[in-house]
Specification:
Layout (H helix, E strand, L loop, with lengths): L1 H13 L2 H20 L3 H24 L10 E2 L2 E2 L4 H29 L8 H21 L1 H4 L5 H26 L3 H36 L2
Antiparallel strand pairs: 1-2
Helix pairs in contact: 2-5, 2-8, 3-4, 3-5, 3-7, 7-8
């Protein structure tokens, strides 16, 4: 039974075109960074933009659900029941604290990694736009599988699991990479590997939560 489940998950990953798009977008960013001679400042803003896009589509995921599970989900020191009100409040709450998190992170980037003269605004925005299209496709491609009675508390948690490791890789690795192009490429490839791995884990966890919740519903 466990083997059949593992085979099924492997088949889903193999057919996951959103995973392919995510990989290609990350690799295109690496190539652009090398060809344009970008440093860590440009890349941090690109990945900040990607993180904002991830949160934007997570709000869509929450409000787009037909049914939700709230097992263990506590709000205002009380267990929440599945309802449209819980769904709307969760979406608003997530948007507020995720937005505040990125506002603070953005201020940190502005003060620590100052935007220099000649900052490639067009190139950075183009990369962020590419990530927007990638996550838009991922949202639509995984929509039916992810919306099958997910745990709404998990949906609030998943984006942080997604963005914190990949941004920490860049922030902690930046002093080591310095101006060395080879080290910077290796760092970006490591970020890509983390992004891909967490994408897979997120959707596997979402599918598992959905199956468990569906099994408990009448």
């Amino acid at each position: 039974m466990q083997n059949s489940g593992a085979i099924q998950r492997a088949g889903l990953l193999y057919s996951d075109r959103s995973l392919t798009f995510l990989l290609l977008t990350n690799l295109a960013t690496v190539v652009g960074a090398v060809l344009q001679g970008w440093n860590i400042t440009e890349l941090l803003w690109i990945y900040w933009g990607q993180s904002v896009v991830i949160g934007y589509y997570n709000v869509y995921r929450i409000v787009d659900l037909d049914r939700i599970a709230t097992d263990g989900f506590i709000s205002n020191i009380r267990l929440e029941e599945p309802s449209c009100e819980t769904q709307r409040c969760t979406a608003v709450c997530f948007a507020l604290h995720y937005g505040l998190f990125h506002l603070v992170y953005g201020v940190f980037l502005l003060t620590t990694f100052r935007i220099h003269p000649g900052f490639p605004v067009a190139g950075v925005l183009l990369c962020i736009l590419a990530f927007w299209f990638t996550h838009r496709f991922s949202y639509r491609f995984n929509r039916e599988r992810d919306r099958a009675v997910p745990n709404i508390g998990s949906l609030m948690f998943f984006p942080y699991v997604r963005i914190i490791p990949m941004n920490l890789v860049i922030l902690l690795g930046a002093p080591i990479a310095g101006d060395n192009t080879t080290a910077l490429v290796l760092l970006l490839l490591l970020k890509t590997a983390v992004d891909i791995a967490v994408h897979v884990i997120e959707h596997v966890m979402a599918s598992t939560d959905a199956r468990r919740a569906s099994a408990r519903l009448p």
